[in-house]
Amino acid sequence: MNPLSDLFPPLIDQETLGIPQGPIKTDMLAYPKDKKWLLICQNNMKQKSASLGPKEFIEKLKEPKIKSTTIAHLASSLNGEPKVWVQAFSTDGGLAILISLLNHRVDKEKYEHAT
Asked: How high is the pLDDT of residue 111?
C-alpha cells in the first residue's frame, strides 16, 4: 500500500473540481513525489486551520452586524475551500443569504449617494 497513491488522487479531484480529464489534472499527475507530498501536507494544514464551516458562516451572515473581516474570510473560503464546502454553503442557503446581504448593501450605498 502506497500512501501517496491513496492520498494524491482525491486531492487532484478536489483541486480540479472533479473534472475528469484536462491539462491541469495531467500536469498534477506528472508532479514529482516531493511536490505531491508538499501539496498533500499543505492541504492537510489548510483543512486543520479552517476555523468556520459553511453552517457557521451562514449563522454569522444572519447576525445584525456583520464584520468586514467575516466577509473577507468568507470570500477567501469560497475561493479556497474544496468544492464540497462551497456546495454545502450554497445548499444550506448561504448563497441566497449572501446575495441578499450584498443587494441590501448596494441599495444602501445608492440611497446614501442619492441624498
From this structure: 83
